[in-house]
Amino acid sequence: MVLPRLRSRAGGGRHHPAAVLLVLAALCALSFLASRPALLPPPPPSGVASQSGAAAARGAASSSSSSSPGPFGASSPQSADLGDPAAVEALSLDRVGGTNHGPTRTEGSRTATVMGMASGYGVETYRSFVGSLRRSGFEGRIILIVAEDPRPGVAEYLAAQNVTARPMRVVNCAFDPDGGRREREDTSSHAREQATCADPYPDIKVRWSRFPLLRDYLEECQECTGPVLVCDVRDTFFQRDPFGVGAPEVEGLHVFQEHRTQTTKHWIAQGPISDCKGLDFGRVPYLSPMLCSGTTVGTREAMLAYLTEMHDEMRAWMGDPKCCCNKMNGDDQAIHNYLFYTGRLPYARAIPNRMGIVHTAGAQGSLILEGHAKHLQMAAGMKRSDAMNTVPYLGAGGKDGWIGREFDLTDEEGFLIDFDGGRSRVVHQFDRFGIPFSRYIGNKKGKLWEHLIEMDG
After folding, report:
1. pLDDT exceeds cutoff 50 at 90
2. Contact at 8 Å (CB) between 373 and 384?
3. Which of 62, 387, 412, 413 is deepest in the core (most CB within 10 A)?
């Protein structure tokens, strides 16, 4: 049977079978429902530690009257007493705008700091990260770890944007990538790549070295007195000032949950923690929402304490044969989750996705992209590569609409949104939306592209 063919609103001449539109419409509805947060009890007042209840479930809390069952069998802070007017008022303030977990900032970002490791990228990556941050109105300091010999145009661009660029000196590692200590020099190219570390921390993996390096640079910056964001650079952009007037006030440390489908059962956390600590983070009482190590916010004091705690734990892992030297990228996320859920970060609180300063888009972006390709394969017989690379998302149209509004992800100008409909301040892992999004950016038109990539005057 030959299906009728309809012209897509923004397909650039592409045609879609009618059945595809029906299937993708159903997919949109499912994505919308999956994107909504689980109903969670309100968080504790700002500044009070909130370990997601997982530590309490393991006996860290001595009184069962102060907690109630939460997601995945853990306990969560008790909800407000609805018979107490003061408690009801505090609860309403805790949910300002539907996304914030406490009071909002009344001053700008002049004393704030944004930090990251960004070694080896081309100037376009810095334009997306730094450019969108400056265009958001951010007035504070930007400190980036960069390559000793940056690519053309990078140094000039960073200087023009008043970025403090700290070159990373590459050295040989003091450990063997297979777990033993180095006894002799291996000159093979593969061994040299694996044995690359950052000075002055040759005893930990290079991807981990950003934690002690950024701690050192933050300690040196005496003017960095306000809140701090440490984040990935390549896959992060900014839509609003993360620390501007009206942003959530920062007390203690904020760690950020990923999409509600992601838990510590994922191999990136469960595998390394099981091997190293003998704990099963895929089962109760350890099973908990996944925390992303790619974005963390805190006061200066809390951030220094967190970065030091991460470094100390990394050194402990490197000194333990059960933990040392696995070749996995992103295993710092296992340490991040391990520290939080075992109570080692008592000054930290977990913020649900799209309900705070950071919107971690990766898991939902991947779900949408994979569903987009799978259903085009099934309904239209398209190859997976063609489905991912040539067909816009359902509802795409005009110069701003890279994805339909029915996905509940964007506003009318294509900016990603929080659950209250306001524009997300920090968007992390945007690249997981794949070619349909990058093609939109490549078209060099639309409000979001102007904000992210447009050449600075």
Report:
1. no
2. yes
3. 387
Percent of the chain with pLDDT over 90: 64
Dump pLDDT digits (tens) for 338-353.
999 999 999 999 999 9
pLDDT of residue 76: 31
Residues in the chain: 457
| Single-letter amino acid, residue 330 | G
Tell me: do 249 and 336 sit in the same domain.
yes
Q: Please say whether the beta carbons of 61 and 68 come within 8 A.
A: no
Number of structural domains in the chain: 2
Query: What is the value of pTM for the model shown?
Result: 0.79
Residue 171: strand pairing partners = 197
Task: Give the separation between CA 447 and CA 138, rounded to whole angstroms.
Answer: 19
State the residue range of the domain holding 419. 361-452
Which H or E element spans position 370? helix 362-380
Structure tokens at 442: 């490549």
String of DSSP letters for 51-107: -TTHHIIIII-S-GGGEEE-GGG-EEEPPP-TT-HHHHHHHHHHTGGGT-SS-B--S
CA separation for the pair 85, 158 (Å, rounded):
51
Q: 183 by DSSP, 3-state: which?
A: coil
For residue 58, the tally of other CB atoms under 10 A from its CB is 18
The predicted structure's pLDDT at residue 300: 98
- The helix (H) or strand (E) run that includes residue 440 is helix 435-442
Instruction: Specify whether 395 is located in the same domain as 300.
Output: no
276/392 same-domain check:
no
Separation CA 452–CA 23 (nearest Å): 32
The per-residue pLDDT for range 297-333, each reduced to its tens digit, is 999 999 999 999 999 999 999 999 999 876 776 789 9
